[in-house]
């Protein structure tokens, strides 16, 4: 049986702006009174130097927009980004849109029907028989169950599958002075926009997806939330999240690797979702990783911020394009639930 292989990855990024520019030009005025000094410290210690925004607050303030207007804008901005990412992934894999058997889209920052899956399948010329799946509101970890579903399709049908993760967090800046708290400041300091696509095929050269595994701690379901409000989607992010991750991440990774006769020391590539600097520090400590093991994750946070579901794929792309690509990669991502996902990849060909 041919193992599903990630044969091509494509990225599409909106224009980037420096974190200092965003603070000086918009957020320094957005946060006022007693929250101003706190917000300034959080922005300065976010681990982010640059971020992308399809809707840049320096040019267009959407913080007072109703959700309906934000959703209309989502469709306008996400469609060309998704098309660019998918086109690049298909080219990298040497396939045409008509070759795809399953097209899977993950997004938690915008909704419309017909959605990105239908509109992109139409615009790219996918076959009428192409199956589609939309995964919504899973948040930052959605890429890994997305890869798992794509992998299962490739294994069962022996046909290529395509995953697209597209997020426009810039559309969800919240109004100034309305329930401004530390959690809201942190989300405004970290989040960014991106679209990343990955093509999976039965066998060949690339990174074989050996397994996707997860654990959910439902006792902490209130620690990470993403609520639909009349003024966009509002993030809730408890400072206790790193503690919960610390309770589960070592066992999740050890058990995943053990099922394949491997240990942490045999992994030379780590794609860990950078929910923030504290998240990376916890994973680094609890897995007892060697120095610079999370360099790709930290560099992605620094240059791109937290792009929600596409982020772990951005890190994977950084690793696979390195001068010496890793032989074995563990991907980790975290999100509402509180949920931890892990995937094991081996380089082939």
Structural write-up:
This protein has a 9-stranded mixed sheet with strand order 5-4-6-7-1-8-13-12-11, with helices on both faces. A two-stranded antiparallel ribbon has the order 2-3. The protein has a two-stranded antiparallel ribbon with strand order 9-10. It is globular. It is α+β, with helices and mostly antiparallel strands and 349 residues long. The protein has 2 domains: 4-202, Thiolase/Chalcone synthase (Peroxisomal Thiolase, Chain A, domain 1); 206-348, Thiolase/Chalcone synthase (Peroxisomal Thiolase, Chain A, domain 1, 3-Layer(aba) Sandwich). It is built from 10 helices and 13 strands. The protein has helices at 19-30, 35-44, 67-93, 116-124, 143-157, 182-190, 241-258, 277-286, 295-304, 311-320, and strands at residues 4-12, 16-18, 50-52, 102-107, 131-136, 161-168, 193-202, 206-216, 224-229, 232-237, 269-272, 328-335, 339-348.
Which regions contain 5 or more consecutive residues with pLDDT less than 50?
none
Order of helices and strands: EEHHEHEHEHEHEEEEHEHHHEE
- Strand arrangement within the widest β-sheet reads 5-4-6-7-1-8-13-12-11
CATH architecture descriptor text of the largest domain: 3-Layer(aba) Sandwich
Oligomer class = single chain
Q: In percent terms, what proportion of residues is strand?
A: 25-35%
Structural class of the helix and strand makeup? alpha+beta
- The CATH homologous superfamily of the largest domain is called Thiolase/Chalcone synthase
SS field, number of helical segments:
10
**Overall outline:** globular
Biggest sheet overview? 9 strands, mixed
Work out the count of structural domains. 2
The helix content is 25-40%
What is the CATH topology classification name of the largest domain? Peroxisomal Thiolase, Chain A, domain 1
Give the CATH class of the largest domain. Answer: Alpha Beta
**Cα-based radius of gyration, to the nearest Å:** 19 Å
